[in-house]
Amino acid sequence: MSLSLLLMIAGILLVETLVASFASFFLKKSSGSENKIDIIKSPYFYLGGVLYVISSCLSIVLLQFLPYAVVLPLGSVTYVWTMLISRWLLKERITKRKLAGVGLIIVGVILLAAGQI
Q1: Cα(77)–Cα(9) distance, rounded to whole angstroms?
Q2: pLDDT score for 115
Q3: Which of 26, 35, 39, 58 has a CA that sits 20 to 30 A from residue 8's CA?
Q4: Is residue 73 a contact partner of residue 108, using CB atoms and an 8 Å limit?
Q5: What is the gyration radius of the CA atoms in the chain, in angstroms?
Q6: Cβ atoms of 51 and 86 closer than 8 Å
Q7: Are 81 and 21 in contact (CB under 8 A)?
Q8: What are the residues whose beta carbons fall under 8 Å from the beta carbon of 31, sequence distance 6 or more?
Q9: Structural contact between residues 82 and 47, judged by C-beta atoms closer than 8 angstroms
């Protein structure tokens, strides 16, 4: 695999997982009401949905270059972004346990990706 192709795949993965994390964030923001109608009226609900569609389309692009058994586990990078977004925008605490979990995810992604190079 050429370096330029590898960098393109890494870039798409980075954007895909970041977009998926923001999609989840906006769906979380839309869920602030008990009333289902209010949720459906929320612009955050639609923004989250659109971002999920974009993320899925980027996953399809990745599937053109990597096996399914690799692309889906690489999507776990979303958890890393989610932790950072929740800290930044929702002021949630990052515990040692969360850091350890994210560390394991990163190690797993590196091992998985290294097997495809």
Answers
A1: 14
A2: 76
A3: 26
A4: yes
A5: 16
A6: no
A7: yes
A8: 39
A9: no
